[in-house]
Amino acid sequence: xxxLFLLLFLSFFSxxxxxxxxxxxxxxxxxxxxxxxxxEISPSYNTEAEHDTLVYIKNDSSNLYVAFKAFGNRDFIRxxxxxxxxxxxLDDQVAIGIDTFGxxxxxxxxxxxxxxxxxxxxxxxxxxxxxxxxxEFDAKARLTDLGYEVEFVIPFSSLNFPxxxxxxxxxxxxxxxxxxxxxxxYMNYKKIDGAGCIICQSDEFYSINNIVKKNKKxxxxxxxxxxxxxxxxxxxxxxxxxxxxxxxxxxxxxxGNNFEFTINPDFSQVEADQSQININSTTALRFDEKRIFFxxxxxxxxxxxxTVYTRSINDPEYAIKLYNRGEKHSYYFLDAEDATTPIIVxxxxxxxxxxxxxxxxxIFSYNYNIEKGQNIGFLATNRDYEEGGxxxxxxxxxxxxxxxxxxxxxxxxxxxxxxxxxxxxxxSNVSKEHTYNxxxxxxxxxxxxxxxxxxTENWETRYYFATKSPNYRSDxxxxxxNDWKKHSLNHKYKYRSNGLIRSGNIEIRKDLMQDYDGxxxxxxxxxxxxxxxxxxxxxNFSWDNSHKASFEGYTFKNIKDYNFxxxxxxxxxxxxxxxxxxxxxxxxxxxxPEIGDRKDFSFNSSFQLTDQFRLQYRYxxxxxxxxxxxxxxxxxxxxxLRGTYQFDKNSFFKLVHEYNNFxxxxxxxxxFQWQPDSATxxxxxxxVNQEDIEGTWEVEGSQVYMKLQYLFNFD
Length: 715
Prior knowledge:
Layout: H1 2-14, E1 33-36, E2 39-42, E3 47-48, E4 53-59, E5 63-71, E6 93-99, E7 106-112, E8 118-124, E9 129-130, E10 138-144, E11 147-155, E12 166-179, E13 182-187, E14 205-209, E15 217-231, E16 237-239, E17 243-254, E18 257-263, H2 292-295, E19 316-325, E20 329-338, E21 341-346, E22 351-356, E23 359-369, E24 375-385, E25 390-402, E26 406-418, E27 442-455, E28 459-468, E29 484-496, E30 501-514, E31 520-533, E32 537-551, E33 554-571, E34 574-587, E35 594-608, E36 613-626, E37 632-648, E38 651-660, E39 665-674, E40 681-693, E41 696-709, E42 712-713
Antiparallel strand pairs: 1-4, 2-3, 2-13, 4-5, 5-11, 6-7, 6-12, 7-8, 8-9, 10-11, 12-13, 12-14, 15-16, 15-17, 15-41, 15-42, 17-18, 18-19, 19-20, 20-23, 21-22, 23-24, 24-25, 25-26, 26-27, 27-28, 28-29, 29-30, 30-31, 31-32, 32-33, 33-34, 34-35, 35-36, 36-37, 37-38, 38-39, 39-40, 40-41
């Protein structure tokens, strides 16, 4: 919060001709650099933008100031009051992307909607967004008769940039709007499909001379407390003593190096992971990383083969991280002591999992940065187990662009495993060369990936190959299956128009997956089509024919599957998506696998009842039925209702209820959260878990929790 006060102080006193109020007055921006957004890049392809957008940029010794004037029909503007990083796909918004090194490795994107709600993220050279990225900045906005205006204040301490007197930063200026009810996107330069990452194509720059680079110096203490009640085996509710903990985190920057640490961190999730249906799966499920400490710098760890999965570091007693984003050379190092260690043992078409005791984890990554987002890098991971044994992994990867329409990438991985000895996994199944139990065996494996793509305005062709050997194991990564090789070839035609169908594509894909003995695991052809119509009506359809598939020695032919989906958003108040999948699928979790009839249905919706109150409803049903007996292998649904009241952009109250028909249980969560800056946060909430026992709902457990975390900023 002290950062917010500092921003306001600087805005009103240190740079007196800028009044940070969301009102873009000509006098205060008269000495600024002026840019415009003349190109519509979606749905049209680099055509003239229908509405004007003016951007003003200036700076003093401490901050970058950016202002937008977004002209257009006010009646079509869509926006709600959102929490930080809560600006969603339904909102009008403007954004500035800044590549301070100008080499396309990544850029930081700052965005705001017409009501002043903000978001920031990091975008890598593959144009993948990291929404967990948070730095200090602020924005204010207001609606006008001619559209809306936004003012940004971005402290230089929030950015990494070369330690030189003369800075030249690449800019990406963008706007999303609903022109006559249809989504459109504007940019300050033409976006050429296939010509490298978006920021690599920028021909707009902002020059700064003689700014003082401030090193980050921050401490983030936190206090958490929770009270838990659980039903014991006798049916009685036991209330555990209140559990409270103090933790400390911090960041220190020196000579371009960033050092971060966390001691006894509280990594409890404020928001529960969205429920996933695992009835017919034989492998572990993957959940998104939501912990800020591990998300910062995760672009160093990107991998086609999922060589690093930070949620495999489950409950660290401490963790430290050191990274540097140099002009050409970048590195990342992480060291963590984990109190309880999840382990996934991959196998042939299935995986096994368990929870071990303590372990020690190390991750090291190095990248050499070439122009236009191209790079080559090295990664190494190691995990030592308290029970004995260790796992190591080494990888080499690269990403290159040729003639602005051809892109290739590769990844080579080597793994070594000395198993711990533990009984947490107990199965009689074996692989070709070893057991799946943790019995002290040692073995090595390898993996690899290669991709080649060609993309133009209307056509896109991609070939991709990936493999993991029978002995491949990555204990700090996410590998649920090994012993496979996969080839994939797809060709796509892209369509754009100002007519009824604004954009669309037609795609054909051929996949071949084999094991290391040459047996076909899956051989399929997929045809798909998508169309975006006016008034945010989107339609998609796909047909999937698995010509040959095998599972645990059983072979099936001509398994057909169909998918149909519709999404619709006629106004800022309503969005919905309907999906229906039908056809055939292998029933895997029975003694003898069979082909069953599949019916999957989903419905998602969002109702923006006021600028501050939003209601969301989700429903998912999955059913697989025997072709012989017409009995269900499984059938069930998950439904959830979520209401959020946003007091302002810093605070909200949320109430969530979810029911899982597969397990006959439910949970209810209530949460109040206040977050005035990137790291200061207070939340108070609770959950109640219930189970349907012979027609009576019984409380199985409940929890009340709170957390106070505060950012002390000494920049």
